[in-house]
Design goal:
TIM Barrel; elongated; Nucleoside Triphosphate Pyrophosphohydrolase; alpha/beta; 8-stranded parallel beta barrel
Length: about 325
């Protein structure tokens, strides 16, 4: 890293607030950045810079009144995304808008769009806003299955219990399981996930993913050997990443999300040095890819994960019923 980049890394990020504003039809408001600004022409969640000494809630209320002419009730935090741009660093703190009053207008001359949620990903956005779309639309928990050490029926029963508890994204992973047995288990697991409306990916096996029309989760070493996205658009591709080079490869391949860690100590990788939340956030700000935190994580860590820019948490023990 050059001296200029080192100084930039030490520069405090600019605090920016943004709001998720819905109309009665459930559409979400986007604003287009005007000419003469950085990233002109891209669509973003409306908001602006937080002034020194100003709370995020007060800053968002002020910005939306000045930019849109509305008064709001600021709701719960959604995600806070650290992001590096060529000449600045920022932290985008996104809040749900509980209620708003007035008539929405582009008072700064900005174009506005009311977007149905399923269309959000089709809008070209700044890098910091892309993880916000994932946080709105995709699961905040990513279950990674343990190996089926006991009976197949018990393993499938535990998966059903996880799905009944609300898990909606699953990675089927079973190192050292015999191939024929694993293929049968995957087929049964895919059926269970589909019955519950859950998204399912298989670890590493691109051919099996293609055959079953499911997603694939790429191992880190496997990721670095690929030059093109292994599945067609519409079939989910995730990737395990531990370094910035791996994250950049995942982003360049068009992966849909990455799993990054370990954030904390974990029995699965006892010799690995944990990133900590500071290390996780440092990787987060270098790419626009939605990211899950893994390593010692459980559902109780979702809020802190979101506060550091994560989509949510991925886990085996923390999400698998015992």
């Amino acid at each position: 890293m050059g001296e200029g980049r080192s100084r930039e890394a030490q520069t405090p990020p600019v605090d920016v607030v943004a709001g998720v504003i819905r109309d009665k039809a459930g559409r979400i408001l986007l604003a287009r950045r005007t000419e003469g600004r950085d990233l002109a022409g891209l669509w973003e969640f409306p908001g602006g810079k937080r002034e020194p000494g100003e709370s995020p809630e007060a800053a968002l209320a002020r910005e939306l009144h000045e930019e849109l002419g509305i008064d709001i009730d600021c709701g719960a935090p959604l995600i806070a995304v650290p992001q590096r741009y060529p000449h600045k660093r920022l932290r985008l703190d996104v809040r749900m808008v509980g209620a708003w009053r007035g008539t929405v207008k582009g008072l700064d001359g900005q174009a506005l769009a009311w977007a149905p949620p399923h269309t959000l990903a089709s809008y070209q956005m700044p890098p910091a806003d892309i993880p916000v779309v994932a946080a709105l639309l995709q699961p905040d928990r990513y279950l990674v299955t343990p190996a089926p050490d006991g009976s197949d029926a018990a393993w499938l029963e535990s998966l059903e219990r996880a799905l009944d508890a609300g898990i909606r994204r699953v990675q089927l992973r079973a190192p050292h399981c015999a191939s024929a047995r694993w293929t049968q288990l995957v087929e049964a697991a895919v059926d269970a996930c589909r019955r519950h409306g859950a998204e399912v990916l298989v670890n590493g096996d691109i051919a099996l993913a293609q055959a079953l029309r499911i997603g694939v989760h790429l191992r880190a070493a496997q990721l670095m050997q690929l030059d093109v996205r292994p599945l067609a658009e519409g079939m989910r591709v995730g990737a395990s990443c531990h370094t910035l080079d791996e994250l950049r490869r995942a982003e360049s391949l068009g992966c849909d999300f990455a799993v990054v860690g370990p954030v904390a100590d974990t029995l699965t990788h006892p010799d690995a040095t944990p990133l900590g939340w500071t290390g996780f956030a440092a990787l987060r700000e270098e790419v626009a890819l939605p990211m899950y935190a893994i390593g010692g994580m459980g559902a109780q860590d979702i809020d802190v994960a979101r506060a550091h820019g994560a989509q949510g948490i991925a886990a085996i023990r923390g999400l698998w019923p015992t």
